[in-house]
Amino acid sequence: MSEKTDISALSFEDALAALEAIVRNLESGQQKLEDAITAYERGAALKKHCETKLAEAEARVQAIVARADGSLALKSED
């Protein structure tokens, strides 16, 4: 995955993997300062994207409720 990949097009899993790679590289301390700053900025954007994806997934899960008979249904919007 290229550093130039549009973050908004990434799945949660791909964004998380990219964020983890950035963290590993930053922790190594082997990057030049400017490269580290650029990586940190991309990491912050990836973190925000992951948080948004998680919030969307949580909203979808909360919209599903279990019926008494064990079947599932979408929660009504009353």
Describe what this molecule looks like in 3D.
- With 78 residues, the chain is mostly helical.
- Helix content is 60%, strand content 8%.
- It contains 2 helices and 2 strands.
- A two-stranded antiparallel ribbon has the order 1-2.
- Helix 1 packs antiparallel against helix 2 (33-62).
- The longest helix is centred in the middle third of the chain and has 30 residues, at 33-62.
- It is elongated and about 60 Å long.
Can you count the beta strands?
2
Please state roughly what percent of the residues sit in beta strands, choosing from under 5%, 5-15%, 15-25%, 25-35%, 35-45% or over 45%. 5-15%
Q: How many helix segments?
A: 2
Point out poorly predicted stretches.
none
Distance between the termini: 43 Å
Give the neighbour order of strands across the main sheet: 1-2
Largest sheet: 2 strands, antiparallel
Give the overall silhouette: elongated
Kindly name the structural category.
Answer: mainly alpha
The ordered H/E elements are: HHEE
Radius of gyration (CA) equals 18 Å
What's the average pLDDT? 88
